[in-house]
Amino acid sequence: MTVKTTVSSKDIDEAFLQLKDIVKETPLQKDHYLSQKYDCNVYLKREDLQWVRSFKLRGAYNAIVALNEHDQQNGITCASAGNHAQGVAYTASKLNLKAVIFMPVTTPLQKIDQVKFFGGNNAEVVLTGDTFDECLKEALVYTEDNKMNFIDPFNNIYTIAGQGTLAKEILEQSKDDAIQFDYLFAAIGGGGLISGVGTYFKAHSPQTSIIGVEPAGASSMYTSVVLENQVVTLPEIDKFVDGASVARVGEITFDISKNVVDDYIQVHEGAVCSTILDMYSKQAIIAEPAGALSVAALDQYQSEIKGKTVVCVVSGGNNDINRMKEIEERSLLFEEMKHYFILNFPQRPGALREFVNEVLGPKDDITKFEYLKKSSQNTGTVIIGIQLNNHKDLENLKANVDEFDKSNIYINENKMLYSLLI
Ligand SMILES: Cc1ncc(COP(=O)(O)O)c(C=O)c1O
Questions:
Q1: Closest Cα to atom 12, ligand 1: which residue?
Q2: Are 26 and 54 spatial neighbours (Cβ–Cβ below 8 Å)?
Q3: What's the pTM value of the predicted model, to 2 decimals?
Q4: For residues 61 and 162, is the Cβ–Cβ distance under 8 A?
Q5: Strand ranges (DSSP E) for 296-401?
Q6: For 185-204, what is the mean pLDDT?
Q7: For the stretch 365-398, what's the b/e string if a residue is b when 16 or more beta carbons lie within 10 angstroms of its beta carbon?
Q8: Cβ of residue 191 lying under 6 Å from some atom of ligand 1
Q9: Does 169 contact ligand 1 (Cβ within 6 A)?
Q10: What is the rounded average pLDDT of the residues 65-83?
Q11: Residue among 6, 23, 27 at smallest CA distance from 60
C-alpha cells in the first residue's frame, strides 16, 4: 500500500465538509489601520477568534475523524505545549474519545488549564520533560506501548488539509465583493498551515503570492527549502514565538512548501512584540506571537504591497497575560527605546540628581537603578536602565554616559550580560 504524502485542493474541500459544523467561520475583516499604514488593502483572517483561539482545531479535528472507528476507540495522543493540544482536547471531548496529551513540565499553567477545560473528562494531561523534544519522545513511547494514535501537529496530510480549510473560507468570503488577493501572509512553524493554505490558493487563486513568515530565531523552513534543499534540524532556536519556533519542519510540509510558497520572510522577535502591542492598542486585537507574525512581516514588504490587496492570517490569540511585561521590554529594546548601562556611581548625596541633569534629556526616564556592588570606597557599581523619548537620542545619551563614567559598559548589545542582568 502506498502512503499518500501530498494534499490536493479536493482533500481540503472534503475537510471543509467534515469541519462544517465544528469550526467557527472566522471573520475576514478589512483592516483600515494597516491599509492606511501601508497604503494598500489589508484584510485579516481572524483565526484568533476560532473556538480554541487558533486555527489548530481545524487540522486536529480533521486528522482525528480520519482515523477508523477501531483506532478512534483506542484513543489519541499528542505532544504540544500549546494550540495543537487545545485542538486535540476539544476534539476528544466533541467525539467522546480518550486523549492523552503530553505537555512539557515548563508549560504555563494557563495553557494546561485551557487544555483541561476543553478536554473535560476525555483528556488526561501528562506533564513530562523539560523540553518539547523530551516530551515528544515520551509521548511516542507511550503511544506505541498503549496502541494509541499519535496526532501529528503538522506532518500529517489530514492535519494539513484541515488547516487549508481556512483558505477556502477566505476565498468564499471575498467572492461577493470580487476581491482578488495579490499576497497572502501566514506564519510557518512546522509548515502545516502554509502547506494547506498554499495548496488551496495555488488551485483557486493562482495570482496570489504566498509568503511564509518565520521568526528570525527559528527559520527552519527557509533554511531547509532555500538554503539546504533538504529537511535540516536547526541546532539552536529562539523559543520566544512559541508555535512557530520549530527546529525541524516535516518531510511532507517541506515537499508541499517547495511547490506552494513563493517567498520566505524572517521577522525579528522584537518586531513581533511591537506588532502585538500595536495590534492591541490600534485594532483591539489580542494576538499571540505566532499569530502576529503575518502582520509583522508587512513592514519588510512595504514597497511590494503598495496599492495591492493583501490578506494576513492572524493565526492565534492565546497570549498569556503574564508575558506582556516581556513583550513590552523586547519591543522597547527592538525600537531602540530602552538602554542599559553598567557604570560606577558616586555614593554620595546628590549624585543621582547630577546624573539626571547631566546625562538624561528632559523626557527620558530611569526605569531601573540597582547597585550590583557597593564598595567601601565612595563609588558603587550600578546597573541603570533608561527609556528614551526618541530613539534618535541614543548617540547623545551614550556620549553623556561616557562623560559621566568613561569605563561604563553598554549592555544592550552584549547578549550574555543582558540575559544575566536584565
Ligand atoms: C498561532 C500559531 N500560528 C502559527 C503556527 C504554525 O503552524 P504550523 O506548525 O502548521 O506551521 C502555530 C503552530 O502551533 C500556531 O500555534
A1: 243
A2: no
A3: 0.90
A4: yes
A5: 309-314, 338-346, 365-374, 379-387
A6: 98
A7: eeeeeeeeeeeeeebbbbbbbbebeeeebbeebe
A8: yes
A9: no
A10: 95
A11: 23
Predicted confidence (pLDDT) at residue 315 exceeds the cutoff of 90? yes
286 CB near ligand 1 (under 6 Å): no
Is the minimum distance from the CB of 276 to ligand 1 under 6 angstroms? no
User: With bands split at pLDDT 50, 70 and 90, how would you rate the model's confidence at 1?
Assistant: low
**pLDDT number for residue 384:** 94
Tell me, what's the pLDDT at 376? 64
What residues are annotated to the active site?
56, 315
CA distance 275 to 300: 13
Q: If you take atom 10 of ligand 1, which residue's CA is the nearest one?
A: 192
Say how far apart CA 341 and CA 343 lie, in whole Å: 6
Least confident range of 67-76, 126-135, 209-218, 281-290:
126-135
Q: Which atom of ligand 1 is nearest to the CA of 187?
A: 4
Tens digit of each residue's pLDDT (9 = 90 or more) over 252-279: 999 999 999 999 999 999 999 999 999 9
Q: What's the rounded mean pLDDT across residues 340-354?
A: 90
CB atoms within 10 A of CB 238: 13
Domains and CATH numbers, the chain: 9-55+159-328 (3.40.50.1100), 76-147 (3.40.50.1100), 336-421 (3.30.70.260)
Q: How far is the CA of 338 from the centre of ligand 1 (A)?
A: 30
pLDDT at 416: 81
Q: Give the model's pLDDT for residue 2.
A: 65
- Return the C-alpha cell found at 422: 536584565
Q: Provide the phi-psi class of 336: left if phi over 0, else alpha when psi is between -120 and 50, else beta.
A: left
**Ligand 1 center from residue 315 Cα (angstroms):** 7
| Residue whose CA is at the smallest distance from ligand 1 atom 15 | 243
Between the CA of 10 and the centroid of ligand 1 the distance, in Å, is 23
Does the beta carbon of 317 lie inside 6 Å of ligand 1? no
Least confident of 65-74, 79-88, 376-385: 376-385
Closest CA to 387 of 402, 372, 400, 397: 397
Q: Which of 46, 49, 56 to mutate to test the pocket of ligand 1 (most atoms within 8 A of CB)?
A: 56
> Could you tell which of 50, 86, 193 is best to mutate to test the pocket of ligand 1, judged by most ligand atoms within 8 Å of the CB?
193
Question: Ligand 1 pocket test: which of 160, 315, 320 has the largest number of ligand atoms within 8 Å of its C-beta?
Answer: 315
What is the per-residue pLDDT for 420? 77
